[in-house]
Amino acid sequence: MCGIAGWVDFERGLAEEASTVRAMVATLANRGPDDEAVWADDRAVLGHRRLAVIDVAGSPQPMVAEEGGRTLAVLVHNGEIYNFRRVRAELEGRGHRFRTSGDTEVVLRAYLEWGERCAEHLDGMFACAVWDPRARKLVMFRDRLGIKPLYYAKAGRGIVFGSEPKALLAHPSVECVVDAEGMAELLAYIATPGHAVYRGMREVPAGHVAVVRDGSAVVESRYWELPNRPHEDDLATTVDTVRGLLKESVAGHLVSDVPLCTLLSGGVDSSAIAAFAAMSAKERPKTFAVDFEGHTERFRKDFWHEDPDAPYAAEVARHVGADHEPVVLRTADLADPVVDAAALRAQDLPRPIPDMDRSLYLLLRAVRQRSTVALMGEVADELFGGYQSFRDPTLVDTANFPWVTMGLRVAPHGMSTGLLDPGFLKKVDVPGYSAQRYAETVAEVPRVAGESDHEHTMRVVGHAHLTRWLPLLLSRDDRLSMAVGLELRVPYCDHRLVEYVYNIPWGMKTADGREKSVLRSAVADLLPASVTQRRKSPFPITQDPRYGEVLRARFNAVVADASSPVRPLLDGPACAQLAAEDRPIAVDGWGERRNVEMVLQLDAWLRHYRVRLDL
N or C: which end of the chain has fewer CB within 10 A? Predict the structure, then answer.
């Protein structure tokens, strides 16, 4: 796993601008603690930070292909290509010769063979940029689901690009400005393909190639999209197929030349990954689970969480024979301002669930001390329909994203906005913005022959989760893991599995009346019944009242500080009323806690990033 950055200009000479790209690459140091390098010619500068996972001693980047002293192409690559050995064999059959044993040179040679269509031949998670001096063009491409990030922005007569917004913001021509549309995207908590919140910045959409030529705008073209087709298999065949695809995907994700482990929550998603990893691994697998000090003892059931995770994770680990280690987080660590700043800095944006971000950051930081690569169970809920936003009929047909509709029931302008100024929120217009984006989403999904109205509605809901919700989670996972130099792998993101499961009818996905029934059936013989029958439980949150005391102190300090940059965005009377109450902030709910956390996140973001709001 790595971080990449670069600058291409078709008019200005860049041979002496390596220091600027080095500054951009420096912001990505945590993504690649093992090596750093920059390559430059008169029109392009490419930089790279490396986390060595495959071919540890070789495969330096930027990687250059030469012939007769002439540069053919230069590549910077972030990610893993799981089928690189098969692609390499095909390329060798076409006359290509290799100097290294890793996947980076396979990507470079694939470009030389297939040009802008090379991504179609690659399976894995990747974000790549190739400078082709022969054609004077830059070619950027991302994996099908968008697991690995890649942003770009116009700069002079060219562009700058990087793995994270912070790399682009380190370039002198890129301003840190957010307008009303960017703020609506942020507060609605949706991921419109290509949008990047910061004005003038864009993300290469998942499954796309973006090409920059002299004198031309960036041209984006799609090479993969979710296929919409009838599902012909019966239930038994469907269950068997899902099992086979997931087993094959997990086996492919175990390729590594460094220590590897699995994150285990005790839910069916991650437990299935752990079970298949145990079947395929050459040695006893290592698993990690997050927990909070005193959490099991003080646990109280709420709307989202029916029971604590720790006992189930331990049971699964015993069942599959894993070497299991719980990572117990202290409240003091969750409340540590250094951890808070690190999680925000990792994502470059405030998020409405920062306590979960800090918990995940701390878990991944602890795992990194033992391992370099970790498999996780993300994406199963989006694929198999595990969320309440799939199952509640009052959420799935409201002319808006189900999770946005859920938030609008808590506050008129959406989740986490309850303490923000009504005038500011009217300008941003989260309900109107998200409804417009949802209409665009609906228009992307054709009706499949023979599909009922309800089945089509659920297809749209599944499409929305995979294209507008999932990218938020993949982005969070990538940033927080890379912030500690850990590579996260997501077996449920295998595009063959995604294509198959996406088209399974909703009636079959809930054949036994429960969420994710196809997945439960596919792994029923591999896991304890207590796990396969367990209700969906989201990522845990601390219920320690001491955390609420910390939130109270920080919130009151921000409200009382006349210099706080967030103050112009706040609902003054509502904040004053809450600040006057002599009690901890509620830590077991999603209303007050989320509102306070968003105020604190916005204040830190505006302060440290020096954001200019243009509303």
Answer: C
